[in-house]
């Protein structure tokens, strides 16, 4: 634990960040610290500006909330600087300390550990948008990024909004369509059957809205690499052998993991209980997205163990 003493140099640096924040119309000063400081002096220096303080060890934030600051534990000490910065901002949005439309000034240790030496002005809407595309590009798949992003964005909207005030769980299986369909059977009425290709194209906003309307039906949407919904309301039946998922995940998630294991498809699963979107590839959860009311959050892959969330 390193104490950031509120000496003249530290105070001047904080003044610089606050000045930049006010001049740029920023909504918050975001400090990534490696230890505690004199919280009362920091609060007084802020003079009404929202201040978020983040640190890897929760003990380093003791007393910050009592002083009227927003405290955010990270536990990301082993991560590179840019990843820590990104994840800190995302967690700030998750805790509703920040909103995705905010502009913030972030102060952090960019060069020398335990020393605040760097300032960045970040518009979160732009930053989060870049993060979305970057993380999807890391998936080694033949599905075009545009198609995958369209499906994922639709899944997040379903997870966040539900339908008519009710939570909705569903699944999209994207790519390797011919092989995927060998593991599918109808769950009932298929609402896309008989429609021309143009009226099944998810790149069309009207089609996406229509899919939301029928998202409550049992079964999965089978989507081609081009973004065409080939079939809907499909029961996915693929072997579950050698799969390991986290406790709390149920049949829909197991089916998504299984189909992504036996094919080259990407499964995008919306949890009915939480709205969380998980992206499966080769049987593993590669990305998890939280259904914020304002926007999405991308999380790093976390190893998942067996369970039964619906």
Can you describe what's shown?
By secondary structure, the protein is of the alpha/beta class. The chain has two domains: 8-129, Pyruvate kinase, C-terminal domain (Pyruvate Kinase, Chain: A, domain 1); 138-299, YojJ-like (1 (3-Layer(aba) Sandwich). The chain is 31% helix and 22% strand. The protein has helices at residues 8-23, 39-46, 81-94, 124-137, 145-161, 177-181, 205-213, 251-262; strands at residues 28-32, 51-55, 70-73, 103-108, 118-123, 170-174, 184-186, 220-223, 229-236, 266-270, 277-281, 284-291, 296-299. The strands form two sheets. An eight-stranded mixed sheet has the order 7-9-8-6-10-11-12-13, with helices on both faces. Strand 10 and strand 11 form a beta hairpin. The protein is elongated.
Quickly describe the structure.
The protein has 310 residues and is an alpha/beta fold. It has helices spanning 8-23, 39-46, 81-94, 124-137, 145-161, 177-181, 205-213, 251-262; strands at residues 28-32, 51-55, 70-73, 103-108, 118-123, 170-174, 184-186, 220-223, 229-236, 266-270, 277-281, 284-291, 296-299. Helices cover 31% and strands 22% of the residues.
Characteristic key phrases:
single chain; 310 residues; alpha/beta; Pyruvate Kinase, Chain: A, domain 1; YojJ-like (1; eight-stranded mixed β-sheet; 13 strands; disordered C terminus
């Amino acid at each position: 634990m390193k104490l950031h003493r509120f000496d003249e140099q530290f105070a001047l640096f904080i003044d610089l960040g606050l000045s930049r924040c006010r001049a740029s119309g920023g909504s918050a000063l975001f400090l990534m610290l490696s230890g505690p400081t004199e919280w009362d002096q920091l609060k007084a220096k802020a003079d009404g500006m929202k201040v978020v303080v983040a640190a890897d060890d929760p003990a380093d934030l003791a007393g910050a909330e009592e002083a009227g600051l927003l405290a955010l534990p990270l536990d990301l000490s082993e991560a590179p600087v840019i990843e820590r910065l990104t994840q800190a901002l995302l967690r700030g949005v998750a805790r509703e300390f920040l909103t995705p439309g905010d502009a913030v000034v972030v102060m952090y240790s960019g060069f020398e550990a335990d020393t605040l030496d760097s300032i960045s002005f970040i518009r979160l809407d732009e930053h989060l948008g870049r993060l979305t595309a970057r993380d999807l590009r890391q998936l080694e798949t033949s599905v075009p990024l545009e198609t995958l992003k369209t499906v994922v964005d639709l899944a997040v909207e379903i997870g966040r909004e539900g339908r008519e005030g009710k939570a909705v769980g569903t699944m999209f299986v994207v790519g390797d369509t011919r092989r995927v369909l060998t593991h599918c059977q109808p769950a009932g009425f298929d609402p896309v059957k008989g429609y021309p290709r143009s009226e099944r194209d998810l790149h069309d906003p009207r089609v996406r809205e229509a899919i939301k309307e029928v998202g409550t039906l049992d079964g999965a949407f089978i989507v081609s690499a081009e973004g065409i919904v080939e079939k809907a309301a499909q029961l996915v039946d693929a072997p579950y052998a050698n799969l390991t998922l986290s406790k709390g995940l149920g049949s829909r998630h197991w089916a998504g993991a299984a189909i992504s294991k036996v094919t080259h498809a990407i499964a995008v699963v919306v949890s009915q209980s939480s709205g969380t979107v998980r992206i499966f590839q080769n049987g593993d959860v590669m990305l998890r997205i939280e259904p914020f009311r304002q926007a999405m959050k991308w999380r790093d892959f976390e190893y998942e163990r067996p369970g039964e969330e619906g």
